Amino acid sequence: MLSFAEENYLKAIYHLAEQSGQSVSTNAIADELNTKAASVTDMIKRLSSKGVLSYQKYRGVYVSEAGKIAALQVIRKHRLWETFLVAKLKFNWDEVHEVAEQLEHIKSPLLIKRLDEFLGHPKFDPHGDPIPDENGEYKEKPKTPLFELQIEQSGIVVTVQDDSPAFLQYLDKIGIYIGAKIKVVDKVEFDGSMEIQIDGRKTNFISKQVSENIWLTE
Amino acid sequence: MLSFAEENYLKAIYHLAEQSGQSVSTNAIADELNTKAASVTDMIKRLSSKGVLSYQKYRGVYVSEAGKIAALQVIRKHRLWETFLVAKLKFNWDEVHEVAEQLEHIKSPLLIKRLDEFLGHPKFDPHGDPIPDENGEYKEKPKTPLFELQIEQSGIVVTVQDDSPAFLQYLDKIGIYIGAKIKVVDKVEFDGSMEIQIDGRKTNFISKQVSENIWLTE
DNA sequence: AATTATTTTTAGATTTGACTAAAATTAATA
DNA sequence: TATTAATTTTAGTCAAATCTAAAAATAATT
Q1: Is A90's Cβ below 8 Å from some Cβ in B?
Q2: pLDDT tens-digit series, residues B83-97
């Protein structure tokens, strides 16, 4: 049984490993969790001895198969709770993360089973991220960053890469949400910014930084 | 801000103080929380320095006004979560306690506000206990233990004193729930047991121990 | 290749919360 | 009231999770 802190480390390391596809460095973990490298080394040893990480001194860590299963269950809980908060308790999508960070550590298989049923077995959370099932299985929708679309091309928003409240509030303000239809009206080569049309209505100018974090499907 | 463990101590001490009406002893707290007296002494000191308990060596502790407010907020959260689990997630009333013990420590005023709204501002939890509001105010229903009723008298179940799964499962089995109508058919002076009729249907024999833990209103 | 810079680990402390064993205090009883 | 019994507190440990500062290992650069 993993503790609260152990689950947080494992989840962060899992995400970093998925992104990079290779071993995860001590400093990367410390940055992600706003902690110090020395603390990370301590925790890495503990998690290795529990079999969820494999680790060689100075060589970074990998998540073991057992670790992946455990991490996916924490992610499953996090995303189910986020879905609950938005779908049932009328939270905005920028308000859910912190609360879900707490709720994801509640230990009760029955609770998660019933919550999943109550929500109708959702497959994606409010940010468009897939929710793993009891076995850790999930399907990603095929997707491309808005940034890569050409003029006149369009797509449906399926995910946002950045989950920060500031970004999500900005998206709210300009009318972008999961499921919105976006068409590229114009692109500025110089800085990578673009003009887009949302749901066939008004147009907006967005920066490259924004268009890289919005992912679409056809 | 109180920690998880501090909140658990405070809540337990608050309950013990309410029951006895006087100062709470170190051993009573240790018994309640299945811990050792030495640990309790440590925690009492910490909670006193935080202003939620008043304490004199060897003299037991009292809950301060600030402590009562804090304790009632934890109790509010516990009972709202229990209500959620039964009303929305189809938990039985004997399954909710352990999970609510975890959920009650989630820190998010917005979450509790929204949960309360979602549940329709319930005034009583699944065991009939009152749910304090944001200000810690609550109303108890006037009630008497079933044990004190005479033959032919009847009442509506409003609370059960014992929340243990074993007791609640027994009540389920014989058809007793919050809101059930119970009539005393016969009483046995010798051992305090009685024969009761539930909802005008079948009759059951129950022991004194059981009838003391079921509370009724008119 | 040798030196410098960066990253990672170790060593030693700190805090929270819990424990055991012994000492101090209060309560009970002969 | 003196002694015994029970309760409570103190003193000293321990584990989890964190930190700073210093040492060790790896990576980068002249």
Answers
A1: yes
A2: 999 999 999 999 999
Instruction: Give, in degrees to the nearest 5, the angle at Cα B160 between B174 and B195.
Output: 40
Kind of pairing between the strands at B61-63 and A181-187:
unpaired
* Token pair for A82: 């986020």
> How many Å apart are CA A210 and CA B7, to the nearest integer?
43
B-chain residue closest to A106, CA distance: B102
Per-residue pLDDT tens for A105-119? 999 999 999 999 999
DSSP lists the bridge partners of residue A154 as A183
Structure tokens of A104? 């994801």
Q: What is the dihedral of CA B202, B205, B208, B210, to 10 degrees?
A: -50
User: Is 90 exceeded by the pLDDT of residue A146?
Assistant: yes
User: CA at B13, C1' at C13: how many angstroms apart?
Assistant: 33
DSSP for A146-210, please give it.
GGGPPTT-EEEEEEES---HHHHHHHHHHT--TT-EEEEEEE-TTT--EEEEETTS-EEEE-HHH
Interchain CB distance below 8 Å, A108 and B88: no
Per residue in B161-217, pLDDT tens? 998 999 999 999 999 999 999 999 999 999 999 999 999 988 999 999 999 999 999
pTM above 0.85, yes or no: yes
The nearest alpha carbon in chain B to A116 belongs to: B89
Ramachandran category for residue B90: left, alpha or beta (phi over 0 → left; psi -120 to 50 → alpha):
left
- Angstrom distance (rounded) from CA A107 to CA B208: 36
